[in-house]
Specification:
It is an enzyme of class 6 (ligase). Its cofactor is Mg(2+); Mn(2+). This is DNA ligase. Belongs to the NAD-dependent DNA ligase family. LigA subfamily. The protein is built from 26 helices and 28 strands. Helix 2 packs antiparallel against helix 3, helix 6 packs across helix 11 and helix 14 crosses helix 15. The longest helix is centred in the first third of the chain and has 26 residues. Strands 16, 17, 18, 19, 20, 21 and 22 form a 7-stranded antiparallel beta sheet that branches. A 5-stranded mixed beta sheet has the order 5-15-14-6-13. 36% of the residues lie in helices and 20% in strands. It is globular and about 110 Å long. With 757 residues, it is α+β, with helices and mostly antiparallel strands. The protein folds into 5 domains: 153 residues, Helix hairpin bin (Helix Hairpins); 214 residues, D-amino Acid Aminotransferase, Chain A, domain 1, CATH 3.30.470.30; 89 residues, Nucleic acid-binding proteins (OB fold (Dihydrolipoamide Acetyltransferase, E2P), Beta Barrel), CATH 2.40.50; 156 residues, DNA polymerase, domain 1 (Orthogonal Bundle), CATH 1.10.150.20; 77 residues, Rossmann fold (3-Layer(aba) Sandwich). It binds zinc ion (ZN). Zinc ion (ZN) binds next to loops.
Length: 757
Amino acid sequence: MFFPDPAQAPAERLAPQGFRALFRHWLLIAIRRRGVVPLELENVRHTVILTPARPPRPHLRSRRNSRRVAAVRAERRAGVVSVLCRWAGVACCAVDAGERIQELADQVVALRDAYYRGSPKVADAEYDGVEDELRGLIEANPELAPDPNPLEQVGSPVVLHAPVRHSRPMLSLEKATKSEQVVAFFDRFPGQSVVVMPKLDGLSLAVVYEDGRLARAVTRGDGTTGDDVTPLVRALTGGIPERLDAPGRVEVRGEVVMLRSTFAAYNAAHPDKPLINPRNAAAGTLRAKDPATVAERRLQFLAFDLHTDPDSAESDLDGALRTLGFTAADMRHCDGAEAAQEVISEIERRRNDLDYDLDGAVLRLADRDAYAAAGTRSSSPRGALAFKFAAEEKTTVLSDVVWDVGKTGKIAPVAWLEPVFVGGTTVTRATLANQEVIRARGIRIGDTVLVRRAGDVIPFVAGVLDAAKRTGAETEIVPPATCPSCAQPLTEQGNSRELFCTNVSCPAQTVRRLIHWASRAAADIDAVGGVWIERLAEAGILEHPSDFYRLDRERLLEFDRIGEVSATRMIDSIDASRGVGLRRALIGLAIPMASDGTAARLCRAGFGSLEEVADAGEEALVAVEDIGPKVAASLIEHLTRLRPELERLRERGVSLDVREEDLPPVVAAGAPLAGKTVVVTGAISDPRSGEKVPRPTFQRLCEKAGATIASSVSASTDLLVTGADVGASKLTKAEKHGVEVVDQGEIWQQLIDANVV
Ligand SMILES: [Zn+2]
């Protein structure tokens, strides 16, 4: 270094003003043009690099002289630059390039050493800055390259979480949401085969093999530098072989996920410390300091990219990965945009049946050479496209928690959220389950939380996004001591400490029970909505389900905003519900522990009416399949209590008798499926008309043909009947258990032949 650090110059002398500011600007540009590497632009410190720029004059051309002259010139120039800099308010320190290179090289060695010992001294970006500056200087002055050059040293020892630079950047993919973008992608590569695969919602990982041995597994990191996670991956990740039958260097990239089944099993085993979602769980696992502490958190690797040097693998990506022994994400070859769009739609439909989270589909050139030849843009490869689905999980702010009284008196916490678009709809309310879940997930009002909504599932709050980002303004969620509706003290039940209001005349419960009676699964009084049920209950007109059947048009017309038309509609709808029958009436009465399935099984067991069930006694009830003593006791207790209500319903013309559709099927003579346990999957349609048939209807037809219907494939299943768009999981299971798989067409033919349909 030639000069003392001018950054110490008095501040007022550095203030940019008028001509001086202009000059300062020019100077900065000039300095940069001359190969100066600015360290902190505008923030005072710059490094001026001085190299012997021009050859010495002829008469001085002797080796010794030229060197000396160059040094003198450099020193002089540095002096001039330094004075100008000071005058213009640009602080600088001038350094000789050779010295600077050696300094940086020493720094790289020291920093790497610190990383490898597990105590990094600087952030990744800063380390990269040092490497970049060194690389730039060596490129400009190759003759000054240090020996040994730390940038050329590879194969450093594996140290958990040490930063490792990727051999080529791990780029993100160009995003698409519209089918036109898929068409445009195919237009870009006419005649090329494209694979479409699920876009897993996990963490990208690069796995490097050297001469057939697993050398290193590195996370994506910032795309340039990732974390060395080799020991964790070796111990915890499925799908990464220790050895490959391939020479040289092989790099396989893919996605690490925690399978949904692993995630669910872990949370069932650790209810006090649940994982927030599979992705966070996988990320947390790869951040662990010791594999032993996260042994139950198994991960799975699914490959999607391959580079070999020398190139010995086949050119088809899917085939090459499989030959090497990797599990690839389910890749489907498509020759056109239309076919690809179909596969994309199918992946989206199946997304909830799969054992991993996914957030879209990836299109990629199937041929590895074509993919490589397509090259990259600044931050994404040209040969691939990510088609994004609507997110099933988003973050939002939990603005409040309201304790809601349910139809059975259960007081459940409901999260009020800042509106968030998730799972294809705007969500403002979500369930928080119970106070134990709130406690285990450590949720507070004001937290930024993760909200999940998949398929038809009620949105729920999965957990707090990052508890470290709390401001201190968050408040504890306090469960109520008394019922929010009737102010009676609450009781706690079960391990999850669910709260109950046991007051049978609790107004909130009354309304909930009435709404439940009118719901689709029960009496299905669709013309009288929840708001009106609440008003009618407030007015004292509705208290029990039987009160619906006392209503008339005149009574309804007394209310503002109920006109002739809606009054008639309401009464017609109530009338139509009089045929509700045993099964749906039992569902409508919302008896604790008695599920929809309980109601169906009672019908099949031969009970003719709700009164028969009420009179049956425990012994007769527990004789019914899947009804235990607890359910039987609850049925007896509540039906005894409801006896007067059953009488009122009967008096007002409501049928509580079993309906034909709920009776056990009469097995037809020569039943083709007699004695067979059958699982039905996929979309079912009648081959004669092509019309869609609801699965329960088809299942009932199978039962008429003698089958026993099961919901999932197991060793005791005889047949898996497949409709359209069948999920892979059921097929895999069927294969595992050796279950015969039959297309729906064949079964339809048997049903037609046996006169079942
Ligand atoms: Zn209450």
